[in-house]
């Protein structure tokens, strides 16, 4: 659990070198056999940092069978850094591997859109509709004056949306001050 926390923190701070060293220390010094979560963190930090081909090589050399938690971050990295051909292959595989995971369809459709392949976007959306895949919005919660408010990103229809976004903006500024 500790190394997953370290690898996740490295990912969020884009600390590729520290992540790779930590992964190495985990296995070599402490003899910890990596779990799918450890591998997923390393693939994610490699892919996010633009090392998409290294992430693919890392996946191919894993000692366990990769799953959606491994291929998903690679797909995201392909989209972020313009590896569209590889991304199409990974995206199509993920859709077959996890046919009810809406995020995989969204990433693949976004990839086609970035390539200007609107037929691909339409095909992915049709596939979602045919398979009954629904995009579920993730809810966020915030407590203001001892009342919990529930909302989705960019939701402006809530009566308290102005107050909610003001508090979130203040929190963002405080995080920036603290981290920076």
Automatic annotation (TrEMBL):
The keyword Repeat applies. It holds the Pfam family E_motif. GO terms for molecular function: RNA binding. The keyword Plastid does not apply. GO terms for biological process: RNA modification. Gene3D superfamilies: Tetratricopeptide repeat domain (1.25.40.10). InterPro entries: E_motif, PPR_At4g14850-like_plant, PPR_rpt, TPR-like_helical_dom_sf. Keywords: Repeat. This is Pentatricopeptide repeat-containing protein. It comes from Pisum sativum.
């Amino acid at each position: 659990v500790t190394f997953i926390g370290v690898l996740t923190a490295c990912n969020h701070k884009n600390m590729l070198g520290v992540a790779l060293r930590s992964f190495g220390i985990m296995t070599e010094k402490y003899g910890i056999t990596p779990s799918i979560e450890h591998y997923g963190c390393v693939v994610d930090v490699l892919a996010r940092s633009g090392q998409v081909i290294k992430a693919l090589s890392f996946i191919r050399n894993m000692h366990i069978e990769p799953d959606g938690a491994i291929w998903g971050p690679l797909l995201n990295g392909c989209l972020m850094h313009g590896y569209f051909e590889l991304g199409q292959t990974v995206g199509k595989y993920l859709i077959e591997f996890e046919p009810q995971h809406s995020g995989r369809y969204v990433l693949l459709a976004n990839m086609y859109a970035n390539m200007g392949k609107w037929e691909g976007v339409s095909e992915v959306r049709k596939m979602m509709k045919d398979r009954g895949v629904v995009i579920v919005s993730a809810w966020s919660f915030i407590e203001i004056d001892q009342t919990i408010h529930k909302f989705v990103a960019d939701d402006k229809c809530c009566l308290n949306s102005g107050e909610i976004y003001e508090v979130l903006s203040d929190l963002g500024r405080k995080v920036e001050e603290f981290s920076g």
